[in-house]
Task: structure prediction
Amino acid sequence: MNFEVRVHSFHENYIANLIPLYKSAFGFEVKLAYIRSKFFSSYQKLRLSKVAISDSGEAVSFYGIISQKAIYKNMEFYIGQSCDSMTHKNFGGQGLFLRLAESAYKDAYSQGVSFIYGFPNKTIYGLRIKKLNWQHKENINNYAQKVSAVPLAKAVKKMPFLKSLYNSYLSALLRKYRSEVSFFGNSVLTSDIAGVIHDHSYFTYKSSADKYIIKICGINFWIKFDGLLWVGDFENTDQENFMKALQVLKKIAKRAGCTSIHFHYQEGTANDFLLKQILPLKGQMPYGYLFLSQEYSDISFKFSAADFDTW
Result:
C-alpha cells in the first residue's frame, strides 16, 4: 500500500503528532512539555527541524535540529545540532531520513546556519557519513570516577514517584555547595577554538530540577543527577586543585546515592587533557559535523556534555 508523505517545517501544531513516533522509534513515550521546551523555548530562535506527515495526518519521520548560539574570536553566530532523528517502523526503507535531512539543511542555510553537528549512533552513523557527507575526525571522551555508594539514584530513576522527595533531599545536600553564579563560561573556548555560548539564556534553556551549579575549591561545576552524577562542564583549573575538588565531588555523589561520576569532553579540549591524566577512559562517542558552506570551514569547534541536546 502506498502512502503520500509530505515534508513540513516542524511547528508547534505538530508536537502531538510526534508522540506516537517517539514511541515507535525509541520504545518510550515522551511528554508534550519535553518536546515544546526542547524545540520551542525562547532560546530556540530558529525553526530548523523537519517532519514528514502522511496523508492520514500521522508523523512518520522526523529530523530534529536545535539551534545554538556559538562564538569564535568575538564573532557570534548560530549553529545547529542534529538530534532526535527517527522514522516510524512501518515507513522504513523509503528514504525519508535523507529526504528530511536534505530539506532541513537547505532551510538551515537559508536561515544563516552554515554548520551542523551531532553525535550519531550506530544506526545512523553510516547514513550521515556516506550519504550526507558528514565528517568524523574526533570523538567525545567519557571519563568515569567510580563511587562506593548505595545506588539510590538508580532506584529513583526506576521509580519516578520518588523523584520529588529525592530532589528535595538533593537541595538540602547541596545547599552549602551552591554557587553564587547563575551561569559560567564554556570551558572549551580559546582564542583558536569555537563553541556554544554558555550564557544566562543557555543555562535557563537547559535548566531543570535535577541540575545544579555548585562551587568546589573555587571551581564552578554544572552537574546533573539522573541515575548517576553527570558533569556537564566545569571551569578550567590545574590538576592539583581539580584533585581536591574531585574528592569533594565523590563525597557528594556518595551521599546522593550515585555509584559513578561522568565527564564528557571532546578530544583536544583543556578539560579533556586534564581528565585523561586522572581518570580512566570509560568510552567514546563519535563527533560528526557538516559544513553547509565554506564560511566557517576553517574553524575548529569543540563540545562537552553541557552542549548535548540531552543535557
In short: The chain has two domains: 5-113, 141-286.
